[in-house]
Specification:
Number of strands: 3
Largest sheet: 3 strands, parallel
Number of helices: 5
Shape: globular
Strand content: 5-15%
Distance between the termini: 51 Å
Helix content: 40-55%
Length: 125
């Protein structure tokens, strides 16, 4: 019986979490404006997409880059990675929350950044 290293499990979990976060962010952000016709929705994406990664280079960043590369191929537009690490993921999460809700800014989020941080700091906006 072979023993698999734990790093493989951790990497798989990180990839799954990053994929889920990106899919959720795309679904939540890429809603056409009220009254927009299907012609406008069909044109998405018509320009590069920015992906906010609230982590320094490492496992989450590398997984986000792999996902962005594949998504870029599928969408036909580049996805630019913007690392915004610091303050327990708050910097990147706040940048994502303040971005226009047009589907051109997506991000990697975790439970800590979207559930725990606002619960611990009511002034967080």
């Amino acid at each position: 019986m072979q023993h698999r290293p734990r790093l493989g499990v951790a990497a798989a979990k990180a990839t799954l979490a990053a994929t889920a976060a990106i899919v959720l962010a795309c679904g939540a952000q890429a809603q056409p404006a009220a009254g927009a016709g299907t012609r406008d929705a069909a044109a998405y994406p018509s320009r590069p997409i920015t992906m906010i990664v609230p982590f320094p280079p490492g496992i989450v960043d590398s997984r986000a880059r792999l996902i962005a590369e594949r998504a870029s191929q599928i969408l036909g537009q580049p996805i630019v990675i913007e690392n915004r690490s610091g303050a327990g993921q708050r910097l990147g999460t706040q940048t994502l929350a303040r971005a226009p809700k047009d589907g051109y800014t997506i991000g990697v989020v975790t439970q800590a950044s979207v559930v725990m941080a606002p619960a611990l700091d009511p002034n967080l906006k």
